[in-house]
């Protein structure tokens, strides 16, 4: 089981069913298993989904990856391509057992010097390429934070801006627009550095509508946003004042089409795989399974109630997405745990709600997310835990630690946004 504390959490038939549904969703998005089915090599012909590449046409082949699934994907690429790989570097949040590709473990969600050094190394490698070289880029969620090559700012200043956006309640799309215009590798700059080499990007989506320009802030994708867009967002959340920075010079993303003429971006995976697997499992358990939304957004403390209110008898509502937490307290938690905590007062008899991060880590806590049912209301009162107080302090982790209702998976080889369900008998 990917859910390590499954037995401890499955204290009722309904909770067990809910956890079984989530388990199937997580199993369906294992990067190594999914990618192994999508790529193949016959002679010199390398097939990626419906794209075919004759590797004999290239002088050298490099693997460059960034994001939470990049080492797992790199392992599969090594197994398939073997000695055809000339080298490469991958920047991930966890280590990988790679032989031909260097795997660097960076920090997330805030960058460290390791991130800075690895990004500089990636840029140097890209700039060394020729028109006869091929870059297989592996791009996945988490790459926006891992890549750190800021424009006329220190990484600490960049991190301050990102923290201010998060605390202010900026959603992931707004945050990524600003990130692109603070960077010299995101928003298409990766393609500029690699020019005139050929780039084929294998992209694993964790964003709304699978917008490839948003995943890891679109390092290999032509960006349509502008400096003006980023400025409006920073003004909206009063970022410079909060950061106490006198100014922040923004960088326009590259618009010249010549840099993207030899770039092919391929969507490899999104959360639909997980949601369909969850729906199928719900139906096999006798429920009416319905995909409510494949990218649920909004304030974490508000969205759960809407999901619960939409439940019908004998139904499971399934969703993917990334809710937002406006941070006002000093507690510890994550959007998945806050989502579930805020939903508890609205749960009726025979209802269960679960939300987990598909990468297994909910904002640097030891939990992937949390589970709650009607009994959670009574148990919390018995333990003297006031839900409103924990919400006000953004301390959902402490609440679920006391309750014993945090979902534990450890870091996983997947990242396709959060997986959410509400179940009604």
TrEMBL record:
Residues 19-240 form the MOFRL-associated domain. GO terms for molecular function: glycerate kinase activity. InterPro entries: GK-like_C_sf, GK_N_sf, MOFRL, MOFRL_assoc_dom, MOFRL_protein. Pfam families: DUF4147, MOFRL. Residues 316-418 form the MOFRL domain. GO terms for cellular component: cytoplasm. PANTHER family: GLYCERATE KINASE. This is Glycerate kinase. It comes from Candidatus Woykebacteria bacterium RBG_16_39_9b.
